[in-house]
Design brief:
single chain; mainly alpha; Competence protein
Length: about 40
């Protein structure tokens, strides 16, 4: 379970970083794209 949990954390951090980069790049457009992906 620890391995699964750490993998989930890694995925969550990756998605979070992806969203942050998108917002930095496109501002509101990037934010909408991030919301649309979810």
């Amino acid at each position: 379970r620890d391995a699964i949990r750490s993998a989930t954390v890694v995925e969550a951090l990756r998605l979070l970083a992806d969203r942050i980069h998108a917002v930095d790049r496109g501002g509101a457009a990037g934010r909408e794209a991030g919301a649309g992906r979810r």
